[in-house]
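Quick check before the chapter quiz. The format below is the same one you will see on the exam, so make sure you can read both the input and the output lines.
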Amino acid sequence: MSANADNSQREKGALVYPVYSRRSGGLSIGINLFPGGKLCSFDCPYCEVFPFTSAQTFSLSLMEEALSQTIAEMSGRGISIKDICFSGNGEPTLSEEFPAALEAAFRIRDMEAADAELVLITNGSGLLDKGLFDLLHRAADRGLRIWLKLDAGTHSWYKTIDRSAIPFARLTEKIRLFVKCAPVTLQTMICSINGSPPPDDEARAWEAFVAEISTSAKNLREVQIYGKARSAPEDPLAAALYIVAIVRTLSSVKTESFVNNSKSFVLVLLNSYADPIMSPAIAPKMQSFPFIIFPALYS
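Here is the expected output.
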C-alpha cells in the first residue's frame, strides 16, 4: 500500500489507509469504521467525502490485520508513523464497533508502533451519550489524543458551516464539561460559505468560547486553525480563503486571552495548498498570536 494513498482508497471500502496529513505533520494511518458509505451527525459543506456505496462491511478482525500489515509495510520502508487515527467516512463514535476497534488499536499500537500517537478526530456529538463520554474520558487517560471539531462560536454560523440537527448549546456544554476532565485539541475550519467568510460577530464569539474553556480548564492542549485544502462534492459552496483572509478574520478578535493563556495551549495555523507563501508583509499581523506555522507540505 502506497504511503501516498489518497482518500479514494477510503471511499472504495478500505478499513485502513495511509495518508500524509498536514494536521499530523507526517504519515497518518487512518482507520475507517464506515467502509460501506458515509455516516455522520454533521453535514459540513466542506466535507471531502464524496457520495459512494460499497459492499464492504466493517470487520474488526480485518481491521486488525490491515492495521498490522500497514504498520509493518511503512516501518519496513523506513517511514515514520506519526499517528494512528480514527477518522474515515464519517463520525467514528457513531459506530457500534468503535469501542472494540479503539481497544484493538490501543493494543496493536502499543505492540507494533509504540512511538505513534493514537488519535480520534470527532465532531463531539458522541459526548452527548454518557457511555461514550465516559469511554473517551478513560481512553484519554490512557493516552488517546482527541481532536475535537469547533467550527463555530455562534448558532447561526454552526448551522451554516456544520449543518447539524444537534442543538449548538447542548454540544458546546458537553465540550465545556469534557475539557475539564480530559486533554483535547480543538480544530476549527475557516473557509467561505456561499462566498462569505465568517462574520466578525462569529469570530468574536468563537474567541470568547475558546478563551473561556482555556481559562476554566487546563486540558486544552492545542487549537488548530485550518483552511479548505481538498475538493468536496458541494464545491464551490465552501471555498478556501487565502492566508491573508484567515489572518484578517483572526485579527478581528481580541487576542489578549490567547496570549495570557498561551502556556495552556498553542494556537496553530495549518496552511493549505491554496495559501500563498508567508510574506514579510503578512507576518507582522500575526505576531500577537502564539502561532506555530506549518508549511504546506501535506494534503
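If your answer matched, good. The mean pLDDT is 81.
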